[in-house]
Design goal:
Helix content: 25-40%
Oligomer: single chain
Strand order of the largest sheet: 7-8-9-3-10-11-13-12
Structural class: alpha/beta
Shape: globular
Distance between the termini: 25 Å
Number of helices: 12
Radius of gyration: 21 Å
Order of helices and strands: EEEHEEEHEHHHHHEHEHEEHHHEE
Strand content: 15-25%
Length: 341
Amino acid sequence: MNDVKNILEVKHLRVSFHTYAGEVKAVRDVSFSLQPGSALAIVGESGCGKSVTAKSVMGLVKKPQGEVKEGSEILYNGENILQYTPKQWQHYKGGECAIIFQDALAALNPTMRVGKQIMENLMGHKHMGRAEAQKEAVEMLRLVGIPEPEKRVRQYPHQFSGGMRQRVMIAIAFACDPKILICDEPTTALDVTIQGQILDIIKRLMKKNNTSVIMITHDLGVVANIAQEIAVMYSGIIVERGACRDVFYRPRHPYTWALLQSVPRLDLENKQVLASIPGTPPDLLNPPVGCPFSTRCQYCMPVCKNRMPENTDFGGGHSAACWLHHPMAPKVDMPDRKGDV
């Protein structure tokens, strides 16, 4: 790891949800760090716990339904946010850490003009007067590429297209110059052209403000576009992490390899069958004692089903939790990918 001080450190995060069927262990002992001005992508299929991890960092997991378990730590500049007072939370949410949700229409207030929604953040965190906040709201809309911002600032969310609403969400998030930005599947419902524009805006503002970004996604194309590091999640745990190049071209966990294999490629023969991952993820009401991917893994050994593998370090911050890397395991060469992604 570099000597740069981490702006965020998540240590042994465990999050559960209490349902009528029992305790759903959504996140099970997740640890990662984030450096100033860098972007970390958390990837995995639906239900793996990536959004719950992000919402925990934002302080959006609340009792009695949700619970961040004892022993979890989320350190922002060395201070555990889980021990914040209500006043500290008020300053942190939106001021120090902001979030862009997947569904902008659901996240925005449909009865309030978009300009006022940006102004609320500015007046609450930057203590601006109404006139100054209104002027700044117009500038934020201009900054994210919305035409005629003086006119659009007085309109309601339903008067904007999907891509424009996502730009409004970015304007709200960046209005108070947050140190950490969480993007929870921000481009999922948008077409490819608009996706690229949204990612370009986030990257430009990230560089301008030296903002650290946590990108939650299942789209590996988004990862390649914005992130420097990747954490691959499966069934509530991180199974592999490392620099983008290492994870893309030298994957060391069978799940990561399967994810990369399932990405459509332009160099395949016409009508070639797309790869898929057979089976389904385990039930987190009763998580497996061994490797959670064992039931879907072509390399599965008896030990995989009985004991959770430890992380193997490959150097340069690249690690994976898989029994295949144990000295006593049979030699299996997961192929390196040369120019596939």
